Amino acid sequence: MCMACIEYTKDKLTLNEFSFALREMTWDDKKHADDVAALMKEFASDPDELKKQLKLLADRSPRR
Ligand SMILES: [Zn+2]
């Protein structure tokens, strides 16, 4: 989970801000960018569910 995801799951960013921040945060992590982009597309209309899925994604990802 990158800073963009963390801030978004804490309700500190709007979806638009999150999408912008994500591009900044994931320029060296294509895999994470793709994972999050897929979730964002799937749950665009359901921000609460998107936040839940981002947390699950973080739990699944190996710590770096
Ligand atoms: Zn992230």
Structure notes:
- Helices cover 70% and strands 0% of the residues.
- With 64 residues, it is mainly alpha-helical.
- It has one domain (3-60).
- Helix 1 (3-9) runs antiparallel to helix 2.
- The relative contact order is 0.18.
- The model has no long low-confidence stretch (mean pLDDT 92).
- Bound molecules: zinc ion.
- The site of zinc ion has 6 residues, from helix 1 and helix 3.
- Zinc ion is lined by residues 1-2, 4-5, 32, 36.
List key phrases describing it.
single chain; 64 residues; mainly alpha; globular; binds zinc ion
Secondary structure elements and their pairing?
Elements: H1 3-9, H2 15-25, H3 30-42, H4 47-60
Helix pairs in contact: 1-2, 3-4
The structure holds zinc ion.
Assembly state of the chains shown: single chain
**Biggest sheet record:** none
> Structural class of the helix and strand makeup?
mainly alpha
Small-molecule components bound: zinc ion
Task: Write the element-wise H/E pattern from the N-terminal end onward.
Answer: HHHH
Low-pLDDT sequence parts = none
Mean pLDDT: 92
What's the gyration radius in Å? Answer: 10 Å
Helix content: over 70%
Number of domains: 1
> In total, how many beta strands?
0
Broad shape: globular
- What is the rounded distance between the termini? 10 Å
Helical element count? 4
**Strand content of the residues, in percent?**
under 5%
